[in-house]
């Protein structure tokens, strides 16, 4: 792949056991909108896909009637991705524009991004795409109580789809939506139509922002203008908070601080994303990271009108906003040559 060839996105579908990943995959594999996709299905557990749709899933890639390439994961994810890219390059399978990976119900999707960015081959061909998590409205409360990975799946999501909404009372659904907003206020929530009739926008608006308009940059950060307050005990050990930085930011200083933070506490920094006004640059700089992995920063051409405020959003485990805020303030005061911005958290 040449330097000018766009990197292929790897989109991830996660969700706890029984949340509806199979239902979504059936719709994706049958849709013409995803005919130029390669779908990787983890072999553990009952895949349960309709035999009339794809037949037996073999280790080798299977070309579906929709045009998708479908195969199972044997061994390490990095090996499966390399094999898929090799077969694409050799012409054994048709070219594809995206990879859609379905994780097992007990998997934490966070490390997938680091698998891609840390591999010397994969990072020249692939990039982390959108994390989409399905949430079972019927069993979400019990799953969260029994399995901590449920919270990790919700926290890393770019998009959340609540399934089985027709099987619960309205008040229970409202409580679940409130919990999801508290755990991951930056995630976009999608309705039932995402399962029944997925469009090519299903995985859009991930961390890759080159086509974003100025107004969409702030929309991508999520509904933080009037954050809803929640009892911390209700959230267990998960915290979500926003850091607002007034004034322009010393990019080098912030980058070093963030790298050190993720290196030391990456397993507990479930998610970080932000838009920054960098000193000496009129363009917004966009950051997106999951656990130990921070994606390469990207520039968007122009700011929204009258809004150049920097914002960083964190979703953490056992790390509160005051601790992160004080760490950043102290680091900037001692290291930065540029006057440190005023930092507030919400």
Plain-language structure description:
The chain is an alpha/beta fold and 346 residues long. The protein contains 11 helices and 15 strands. It has helices at residues 21-30, 51-54, 77-90, 110-118, 140-146, 149-155, 170-183, 193-196, 214-221, 251-265, 321-335; strands at 8-15, 37-42, 62-63, 69-73, 98-102, 126-136, 159-163, 188-190, 238-246, 269-277, 284-290, 293-294, 298-299, 310-317, 342-345. The strands form 2 sheets. Strands 3-4-2-5-1-6-7-8 form an 8-stranded mixed β-sheet, with helices on both faces. Strands 9, 10, 11, 12, 13, 14 and 15 form a 7-stranded antiparallel β-sheet that branches. The longest helix has 15 residues, at 251-265. It starts with 7 loop residues before the first strand and ends with a strand. Residues 43-59, 206-218 and 223-235 have low confidence and may be disordered.
Please render the helix and strand layout as text.
Blueprint: E1 8-15, H1 21-30, E2 37-42, H2 51-54, E3 62-63, E4 69-73, H3 77-90, E5 98-102, H4 110-118, E6 126-136, H5 140-146, H6 149-155, E7 159-163, H7 170-183, E8 188-190, H8 193-196, H9 214-221, E9 238-246, H10 251-265, E10 269-277, E11 284-290, E12 293-294, E13 298-299, E14 310-317, H11 321-335, E15 342-345
Parallel strand pairs: 1-5, 1-6, 2-4, 2-5, 6-7, 7-8
Antiparallel strand pairs: 3-4, 9-14, 9-15, 10-11, 10-14, 11-12, 11-13
């Amino acid at each position: 792949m040449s330097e000018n060839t766009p990197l292929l996105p790897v989109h991830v579908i996660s969700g706890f056991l029984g949340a509806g990943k199979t239902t979504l995959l059936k719709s994706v594999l049958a849709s013409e909108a995803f005919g130029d996709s390669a779908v990787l299905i983890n072999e553990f557990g009952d895949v349960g896909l309709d035999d009339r749709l794809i037949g037996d899933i073999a280790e080798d890639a299977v070309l579906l009637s929709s045009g998708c390439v479908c195969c199972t994961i044997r061994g390490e994810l990095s090996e499966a991705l390399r094999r898929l890219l090799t077969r694409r390059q050799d012409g054994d399978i048709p070219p594809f524009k995206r990879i859609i990976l379905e994780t097992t119900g007990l998997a934490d999707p966070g490390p997938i991004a680091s698998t891609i960015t840390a591999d010397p081959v994969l990072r020249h061909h692939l990039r982390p795409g959108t994390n989409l998590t399905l949430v079972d409205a019927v069993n979400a409360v019990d799953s969260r109580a029994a399995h901590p990975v449920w919270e990790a799946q919700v926290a890393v999501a770019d998009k959340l789809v609540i399934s089985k909404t027709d099987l619960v009372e309205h008040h229970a659904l409202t409580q679940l939506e409130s919990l999801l907003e508290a755990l991951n206020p930056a995630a976009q929530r999608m309705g039932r139509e995402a399962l029944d009739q997925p469009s090519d926008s299903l995985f859009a608006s991930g961390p890759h922002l080159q086509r974003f308009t100025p107004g969409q940059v702030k929309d991508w950060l999520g509904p933080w203008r009037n954050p809803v307050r929640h009892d911390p005990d209700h959230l267990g050990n998960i915290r979500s908070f926003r850091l607002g930085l007034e004034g322009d930011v010393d990019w080098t200083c912030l980058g070093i601080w963030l790298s050190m933070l993720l290196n030391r506490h990456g397993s507990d920094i479930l998610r970080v994303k932000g838009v920054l006004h960098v000193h000496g640059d009129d363009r917004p700089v966009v950051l997106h990271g999951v656990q130990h992995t921070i994606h390469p920063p990207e520039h968007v051409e122009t700011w929204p009108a009258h809004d150049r405020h920097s914002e960083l959003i964190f979703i953490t485990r056992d790390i509160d906003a005051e601790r992160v805020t004080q760490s950043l303030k102290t680091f900037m005061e001692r290291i930065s040559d540029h006057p440190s911005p005023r930092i507030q958290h919400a």
